[in-house]
Amino acid sequence: MTHRPNSVEARDIAFQLHSYADARRHEDVGPMVVEKGEGIYVEDLNGKRYIEGMAGLWSVAVGFGEKRLVDAAARQMEKLPYYHTFSYRTHGPSVDLAEKLISMAPVPMSKVYFTNSGSEANDTAIKLIWYRSNALGLPQRKKIISRARGYHGVTIASASLTGLPNNHRSFDLPIPQVLHTTSPHYRTMHRDGEDEAAFARRCAQDLEDLILQEGPETIAAFFAEPVMGAGGVIVPPEGYWDAVQPVLRKYDILFVADEVICGFGRTGEMFGTTKYGLQPDMITLSKALSSSYLPISALLINDKVYQPIADESHHIGVFGHGFTGSGHPVAAAVALENLKIIEERELVAHVKEVSPVFQTRLAQLSERPMVIETRGVGLIGAAEVYHPELSKTPGALGLKVNAAFLDQGLISRNMLDAMAFCPPLIITERQIHDMFDLAERGLDAVASAP
User: Fold this and answer.
1) What are the angstrom distances between the C-alpha of 219 and each of 207, 223, 371, 413?
2) What is the distance in angstroms between the CA of the first residue and the CA of the last residue of the chain?
3) Which pLDDT tens digit goes with each residue over 274-304?
4) What angle do helix axes 329-344 and 67-79 make, rounded to 10 degrees?
5) Domains of the chain, with CATH numbers?
6) Mean pLDDT, residues 65-76 taken together
7) SS3 of 331, please?
């Protein structure tokens, strides 16, 4: 008989492979086991309480332990625990949620397609873009452009869109149809004497140069987050979107706005699309859609995208794509209730009210040793750290700071050496101060260590 370890930690090490972890290191250090959560806090198996400064994975908008979402899930489980949306079938929650999302959309949209994660939503967007190109008799128009340091997921196609080397290394990615253009990170990418406006214009020119180099007739779409999240919380420089969008329109290139992190209030508007005046043809949504209480995501497409796809499915006789859990009734019911909470409690207005405190305290971290840049908008931000010795290995300093934050009772996430802050939208001004007080103590502890 195989021996089964007794503790949760030991069983985890024995049986589970973790995302975004060094598997060998995990065998040595083991996991932190999170046992429960309430509001902006979570508690580990040993009873230690933490401020969840990342809202889980950028996603628990209404906080942990929201009973209305638990009750919504239970009611739907009793009524209809599962059904699908294949082959001319549907159910009430998916219809209601699709209608709700179309009504909320920041620009006119025609249809919603449900998936289970942001990765799947972006992956599906690529498939629909290729399908549409074939429907229009443009089989050569298949290339997709995204940006260095962008993050769009981890499926084969969406990981190819992602512009982070460690999402490509040893996975044989990116696939050939995906190209990457300049990251809009002003501090690391600008040239001497180039202000933000000039840098933004050069980013747009780099994009146009890539389009011309590849051939405009081969470029189908451009994917971008309104504000880059997992690539380091990169806020677009002044004039960036005003310079980029005309390039896309000039060459009739579809624009896909990845709102997986920005959507539902994070930037101080319901959508990042509104915050930056974007005009996308497709929008991907997830995370705060259900506050991640259950997996669900959505792809919104406008009529320009939908009509050729509908024609092609009619020509073939079927739209040959789908997921077992697409529009899952329980996940859809939870998402609907979550959106009600966001609206009823006016959480977007709350973000606008408290974000000046958040951004002020974030900026004040630059007064700490090792912090070389802070950047953010709304209730999302990052503090980048540097040390001449510890930064020789990218990410090594970030890991130390992350561990110091945990010791203080704060959960952050180091993206190499950028420390992210993305708390639940319900966070209060007092709790913002508490969070950054812990961050300051953690940074000071690392700076003073021998």
Assistant:
1) 11, 12, 40, 35
2) 48
3) 999 999 999 999 999 999 999 999 999 999 9
4) 150
5) 32-62+346-448 (3.90.1150.10), 70-344 (3.40.640.10)
6) 98
7) helix
pLDDT confidence band for 4 (50 / 70 / 90): low
CA 62, CA 55: separation in Å to the nearest integer?
9
- Whether residue 333 has pLDDT greater than 90: yes
Question: Quick one: pLDDT at residue 1?
Answer: 43
Report the pLDDT averaged over residues 35-50.
Answer: 97
pLDDT tens by residue, 132-147: 999 999 999 999 999 9
How far is residue 113's CA from residue 129's CA, in Å, rounded to a whole number? 14
**Which residue in 112, 103, 37, 26 sits closest to 67, CA to CA?**
37
What is the SS3 assignment for 176? coil
Contacts for 243-247: CB closer than 8 Å, 24+ residues apart: 243/200, 243/201, 243/203, 243/204, 244/200, 244/203, 244/204, 244/207, 245/278, 245/279, 246/204, 247/204, 247/207, 247/208, 247/211
Cα–Cα distance between 206 and 50 in angstroms, integer?
A: 43
- 145: which strand partners? 179, 222
Mean pLDDT of 212-228: 98
What sign does the dihedral 21-62-267-155 (CA atoms) show? positive
Closest CA to 130 of 120, 138, 121, 142: 142
C-alpha to C-alpha distance for 203 and 130, rounded to whole angstroms: 26
pTM of this prediction?
Answer: 0.96
For residues 421 and 375, give the distance between their C-alpha atoms in angstroms, rounded to a whole number: 10
Q: What is the mean pLDDT of residues 119-125?
A: 98
Nearest-angstrom CA–CA distance, 450 and 444: 12
Per-residue pLDDT, 6: 76
Report the alpha-carbon distance of residue 290 to residue 61 in Å, rounded: 8
Contact 281, 302 (CB under 8 A): yes
How far apart are the C-alpha atoms of 224 and 257, rounded to whole Å?
5
